[in-house]
Structure formats: structure tokens, C-alpha cells
TrEMBL record:
InterPro entries: EF-hand-dom_pair, EF_Hand_1_Ca_BS, EF_hand_dom
Species this protein is from: Sphingomonas jeddahensis
Xref: Pfam families: EF-hand_7
Superkingdom as given in the UniProt entry: Bacteria
Protein name: EF hand
Amino acid sequence: MRSLIVLAALVPLLAACGTSEEDHDETAAAANYMPPTVTSRLDFGSEIERRFHAFDTNRDDKITADELPERLKPMIARGDENGDRALSSQEWSELLLDWFDRNDLNKDGTLTSEERETYRERHPRPVQTAR
């Protein structure tokens, strides 16, 4: 009798454990979930310095086009204020802080993932063709 009661209690539990198409979709969506991010201007400033040193592979305190990936090479022309075809730490910082300020749409000193997405939608990158 006791085993019959246990069996009667287990049947509904096991039936509830099945996966439906909806459950599968929710699981897949959760696996691809990217939590929202918030970056302050101060935190971004420390990231700027770290990136500068990561790109300055020859440690000459400037970034030249040969030290940047292809998609970032146009930054040299945009940020080179003294015409030496390189970015000093100061030029690099000013360029990236300008990017931060343009992306900070509500001008509150923080950059959210939603603001970055909105900026990307308004300013799509040109498609680069393979050579």
C-alpha cells in the first residue's frame, strides 16, 4: 500500500519534468543572455590606459597604424593632432573619451549597454570587404 501511495505521488512529478518547445526556447534564450552593463567615465578612463599599453607593442609610448587591427587604423587619422601619424597617450585618451561622450546619450557620465546599442543603430559601421 505504501509503495502505491509513493508511486501515485511520483507520477505527477515525473510528468511535470518533461520539456516542451517553450521550455527549450526559454533555455536557449537564457544561454544567450547578456546582462546589461554600466561603465562610468572614470572606469572607462582606466580602461583607456590599459588598452593604450596593450596596443603599444614596441613600448615607444605611441600607437602607430601597424600596431592596430585593420578596423581601428582609421583612428590614427581622426586622433593625430600633431601630424606624426601616430597616437600619443594623450591623443588616444582624448579620442576615446570623445567616443565615450558621444555614446553617453543622456550625458549622465555613465555608459549603459542600451546607450551603446542605440548609438550603434544610429551610426552603423561601414561593411568592410575582404581583399
